[in-house]
Write a structure and sequence with these properties.
Elements lengths: L5 E2 L21 H10 L17 E9 L4 H12 L4 E4 L1 H4 L4 H10 L3 E4 L12 H19 L5 E2 L17 E3 L13 H11 L5 E5 L3 H16 L3 E2 L2 H6 L1
Parallel strand pairs: 2-3, 2-7, 2-8, 3-4, 5-6
Antiparallel strand pairs: 1-6
Helix pairs in contact: 2-7, 6-7
């Protein structure tokens, strides 16, 4: 069974899907908007496969930023025109010149989410301690980007009971997890992901291992060839 993809809080409502908690394909909003703006297709015209958007997936990275690996990943994403979602750790932001990496992520259009300040299990903490872990990382990201962080990936996928109802946040989990942190074999990571990934999946990787960065770029190339479009988590869940 795949892990639950996400939990929605406050004014956000769960998205319905056929299986695995995945978000559904957008079946009309985009085309309806196009019809309003352009008048739609002329009589006799038909939509071809080339005109239709490919299936969407989100590729996400935890535990960064890393001074060695994350810039290499950002270079590869930029070369491929892909936007990713990064769930960052506050302590890592404060290391080296990693604030510049966060700034680059933001400037290049990637989504930045909160992965706590010190990579702790929030479910084993008091609510006050858990709030502090998230607030410290929120403050660092806001200081660098000027933007609030709306998305949280709790380490180990765990949050204190009912805490998700208290915060104006979306808790994001995943549907494809190759356990890349357990191996340095990029081929193995690639194989696990490309054989499991389907439309609307959320792929979990880490940008603090060179093998994971290598695998991520190869995964993107393979899934691109299969017609997949990579989007940030907010687009995947809200479109």
């Amino acid at each position: 069974m795949q892990a639950l993809a996400f939990l929605c809080v406050l004014n956000f409502f769960p998205l319905h899907a056929a299986d695995s908690g995945k978000a559904p394909e957008d079946t009309g909003k985009a085309s309806g908007l196009q019809s309003l703006e352009t008048g739609g297709m002329e009589a006799g015209e038909t939509e071809t496969d080339a005109d239709r958007p490919g299936p969407s997936v989100a590729i996400t990275f935890d535990d960064g930023p890393d001074a060695s690996c994350t810039p290499v990943l950002l270079d590869g994403l930029k070369e491929r025109g892909v936007k990713a979602t990064f769930f960052v750790i506050g302590q890592n932001i404060e290391k080296d010149k990693n604030r510049d990496i966060i700034r680059r992520m933001y400037q290049e259009g990637h989504q930045i989410g909160n992965h706590t300040y010190s990579h702790v299990n929030l479910a084993q903490m008091s609510r006050e301690e858990a709030h502090e872990e998230l607030d410290m990382t929120d403050a660092l990201i806001r200081e660098i980007t000027g933007k609030e962080t709306e998305f949280v990936r709790p380490p180990f996928g765990a949050v204190p009971d009912d805490m998700e109802e208290e915060l104006d946040k979306l808790y994001v989990k995943w549907t494809v997890d190759p356990l890349d942190w357990t191996t340095e074999n990029a081929d193995e990571i690639v194989q696990r992901v490309v054989t499991e990934t389907e439309e609307n999946d959320i792929i979990l990787l880490h940008d603090c291992y060179s093998s994971s960065v290598e695998a991520a770029l190869r995964i993107i190339d393979i899934l691109h060839e299969r017609g997949y479009e990579f989007v940030t988590v907010d687009r995947l869940l809200m479109d």
